Amino acid sequence: MRSSLDRLRARVAAGVAVLRRVAGMPDYAAYVGHLRRCHPGRPIPTEREFFLEYVATRYGDGPTRCC
To answer: What is the rounded distance in angstroms from the CA atom of residue 54 to the CA atom of residue 9?
Structure first.
């Protein structure tokens, strides 16, 4: 049986994940879960590697606006 503190932590983690998605920030834990489920042979990047790949994919060679 889960304690109320465990349930609260799970709810806070879920809320943070939702806020990150709304803000357009990547969710490393969700990505790792996806890799394990759908691409079991693919190596799992570190959180830093994941973030750097996300930034490179999103912004490419430079900023997306002039100012």
So the answer is: 27
How many residues belong to the chain? 67
What are the structure tokens assigned to 10, written together? 């799970």
Query: What Rg do the C-alpha atoms of the chain give, in angstroms?
Result: 16
pLDDT in tens, 25-35: 778 888 899 99
DSSP state of 54: H
Show Cβ contacts of residue 20 under 8 Å, excluding neighbours closer than 6 positions. Answer: 26, 27
1 DSSP 8-state letter: -
DSSP state of 62: S
Structure tokens given for 11? 């709810």
